[in-house]
């Protein structure tokens, strides 16, 4: 396996800067999730690592060796695309073996490695089938098998689960993590799905307008997003702004957020409590409940405070006594106040 690093990577398309001096390390054997809105540069970064995009500045290193002048086929990279890109006229086994044939691996060794990797992805009995005879999840596993059968040093995944329905996507997240752990391959994963990134990744990086704005373990980034963009992009966040005083942050309705150190703070919806009577919590304010949304075991309350929309998330049964709409109290613990820069 190999660590991957990009240093000062810059790529422009006309006047648009798709990558703006991005420097980032992808740990050896880790599962790294790249997140960002459309046009943030995450797929361009993935393609630059693979060699499909040539940057104007910066460099890519795999295992401490620069690969700027190394062609795509010699970078020892496996790649899985959103569309799977399977050959419809070939069987599953033939699809998986294709990369080995190109590398002129002997037939006996080829057959052994194909059988081995099909067992790994739990498709051992399906080698003689054609892609159209498989489910979406099975086709995705064929694409994974084809990418790893050549024993690459790095695996690149470009939104590989986005074409699947929700139930199958959750199932494939578990399978992806299992396969990556068993193989131990350095994996870089592009997704627009925040929940998917949190579930799969050892570390995540968030891109915006071609720049890296935050990087770290998922829990650390979620708990300490540092800026409003990251707080709202990774999960949901209620933002509160006001004037800093010696005791904390004074909001527009006079409420003091005790201990706050920045002029804007965030509170995650799961940490916001709702009650009909005034709570004893030191941080409390009045808001208007606009809507209750039922989503099975969990529920969401949409509220209005000072013209801002807030959300509270919790077990639906905990909201059972609340009215459909009307005045309520909101509160949270000081430890759940997240300071935001800028």
TrEMBL record:
GO terms for molecular function: ATP binding. Pfam families: ABC_tran (PF00005), TOBE_2 (PF08402). SUPFAM superfamilies: MOP-like (SSF50331), P-loop containing nucleoside triphosphate hydrolases (SSF52540). InterPro entries: AAA+_ATPase, ABC_SmlMolc_Importer, ABC_transporter-like_ATP-bd, ABC_transporter-like_CS, Mo/tungstate-bd_C_term_dom, P-loop_NTPase, Transp-assoc_OB_typ2. Keywords: ATP-binding, Nucleotide-binding, Transport. Signal peptide: none annotated. Gene3D superfamilies: P-loop containing nucleotide triphosphate hydrolases. Residues 4-234 form the ABC transporter domain. This is ABC transporter ATP-binding protein. It comes from Albidovulum sediminis.
């Amino acid at each position: 396996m190999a660590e991957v690093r990009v240093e000062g990577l810059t790529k422009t398309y006309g006047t648009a800067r798709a990558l703006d001096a991005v420097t980032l390390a992808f740990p050896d054997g880790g599962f790294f999730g790249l997140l960002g809105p459309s046009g943030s540069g995450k797929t361009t970064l993935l393609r630059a690592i693979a060699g499909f995009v040539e940057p104007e500045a910066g460099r890519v290193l795999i295992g401490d060796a620069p690969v700027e002048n190394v062609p795509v086929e010699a970078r020892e990279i496996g790649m899985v695309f959103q569309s799977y890109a399977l050959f419809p006229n070939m069987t599953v086994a033939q699809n998986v073996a294709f990369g080995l044939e190109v590398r002129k691996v002997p037939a006996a060794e080829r057959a052994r490695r194909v059988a081995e990797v099909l067992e790994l992805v739990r498709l051992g009995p399906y080698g003689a089938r054609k892609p159209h005879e498989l489910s979406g999840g099975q086709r995705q596993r064929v694409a994974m098998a084809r990418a790893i059968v050549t024993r690459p040093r790095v695996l690149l995944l470009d939104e590989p689960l986005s074409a699947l329905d929700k139930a199958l996507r959750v199932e494939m997240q578990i399978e992806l993590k299992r396969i990556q752990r068993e193989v131990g391959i350095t994996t870089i994963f592009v997704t627009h799905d925040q929940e998917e990134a949190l579930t799969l990744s050892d570390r995540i990086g968030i891109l915006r307008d071609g720049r890296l704005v935050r990087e770290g373990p998922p829990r650390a980034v979620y708990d300490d997003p540092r800026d409003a963009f990251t707080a709202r992009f990774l999960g949901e966040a209620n933002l509160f702004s006001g004037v800093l005083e010696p005791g904390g942050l004074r909001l527009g309705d006079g409420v003091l957020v005790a201990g706050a150190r920045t002029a804007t703070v965030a509170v995650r919806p799961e940490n916001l409590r709702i009650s009909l009577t005034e709570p004893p919590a030191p941080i409390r304010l009045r808001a208007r409940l606009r809507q209750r949304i039922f989503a099975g075991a969990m529920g969401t309350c949409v509220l209005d405070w000072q013209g801002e929309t807030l959300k509270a998330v919790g077990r639906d049964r905990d909201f059972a006594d609340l009215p459909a709409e009307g005045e309520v109290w909101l509160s949270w613990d000081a430890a759940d106040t997240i300071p935001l820069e800028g």
